[in-house]
Amino acid sequence: MSEDLVTMNAEPWELEFDPSTTALMVIDMQNDFTLAGGYCHQYMEARGMGDDAIATLRTPIEPIQRCLEAARGAGMKVIYTIESHWADLSDAGPSKMDGTIRVGAPIGAQGPHGRNLVRGDWGTEVIDELKPLPDEHVLHKAGKGGFVATDLDLILRSAGITHLVFTGITSDCCVLFTRQGARDRGYHTVQLYDACAASVQENHDAIYNMIRTHPEAFGLMGTSEAFVNAVAPVAAHA
Length: 238
What we know:
Helices cover 37% and strands 20% of the residues. By secondary structure, it is α/β, with parallel strands linked by helices. It has one domain: 3-Layer(aba) Sandwich (Rossmann fold).
């Protein structure tokens, strides 16, 4: 094994990767999805579970903080994604707009802290607990997948990235679509169970079961502890 490779405990098999060609992905950890009054809270509240959903969506914050510290210490690339739209909503397609209207939280509508999912407003800022460093990419996407109409693939390939470690929300939507976009483009992927969440716990666990059953399609599943343990020696000698 190359001296540059580290080994991470994962399911259903161990993952060997070089931190210098691996990126930590932080998916959609933004105000609109994690704080009271935000977009997610509005539409889940319409279903009678707004506070419960927000509490669940905030569970990855501490694990992601540990992953960020370890990844930065090891010199790894860190990339954030944010779901957002232009102020005129020209990049919000008819089907997406119709769906958000039907669930009770239209994109672009005025919420307690600004317009829902509109780029530049409060809701499309990374939460305070996970603020990016000045040299870290924050990619705004109008779709669910991080590769749709963004420079993500170009950024990764230009940096020689071959492996992606996934954290963020939601496991059953934006993490899922971004991870599958990565798989379709040939990247190795591992998702960290406790550093991701869905608004409904059963959906999060269903994704875990999908990965365990079909790793050839979905990649691997690990934990924040396993990731930190793998890269900690690199950080110690950086």
